[in-house]
From TrEMBL:
Signal peptide: none annotated. This is Nuclear transport factor 2 family protein. Residues 27-140 form the SnoaL-like domain. It comes from Pseudoduganella lutea. InterPro entries: NTF2-like_dom_sf, SnoaL-like. Gene3D superfamilies: 3.10.450.50.
Length: 177
């Protein structure tokens, strides 16, 4: 009898977590992304096989600038991403302006301002997140931002000559430094 009672009480926290609203799970994760909290939050709120997509599916050149760019998996992928972001940038502001959900899907929108630790460049960006939560765990998380501005915050020098309009001349971008 005692064994049965212990088993039932052990199942209660898991059952309670699984019954939480997806929006609450994502909100709790986002409230715990500081380097000293993200590992525990990821272990608690992220499924072992969860997919994290940061900025791109796969861009080797961007990954050289922002090593977390692309696809990663599991709680370690989530905690590594947020730990690296905090190492590369000083987070000056992060505001969620809208968050809503439908079924397992959660959408988050907001703005942030980061300062590059290496070169001191400040930039602000809108962001959006699409997340999926099943049984109280995040199983999918896609984070998008102004990738041009975030990568440019690490630029020390150089520019690009680009041609976007077939009927117009090429022009130079990134001359600021």
């Amino acid at each position: 009898m005692l064994l049965g009672a212990s088993s039932a009480s052990a199942r209660e926290p898991a059952k309670a977590a699984a019954s939480r609203a997806p929006i609450d799970v994502v909100k709790e994760f986002l409230e715990n992304t500081a380097p000293d909290k993200v590992d525990a939050a990821a272990k608690r709120l992220v499924a072992p096989d969860a997919t994290y997509i940061s900025l791109t599916f796969d861009n080797p050149e961007l990954k050289k600038i922002e090593p977390w760019a692309g696809k990663s998996t599991g709680p370690a992928g989530f905690s590594t991403t947020f730990s690296r972001v905090a190492k590369y940038w000083k987070i000056e502001d992060f505001k969620i302006t809208d968050m809503f959900g439908s079924g397992e899907n959660v959408a988050v929108f907001g703005t942030f301002t980061y300062r590059s630790v290496a070169v001191g460049t400040l930039f602000s960006s809108p962001f959006s997140i699409h997340s999926k939560v099943r049984n109280g765990k995040i199983v999918y998380f896609q984070f998008m931002e102004d990738t041009y501005a975030s990568a440019a915050s690490f630029r020390q020098s150089g520019s690009w000559t680009v041609k976007t309009d077939p009927g117009a001349p090429a022009f130079e971008v990134g001359k600021g430094k």
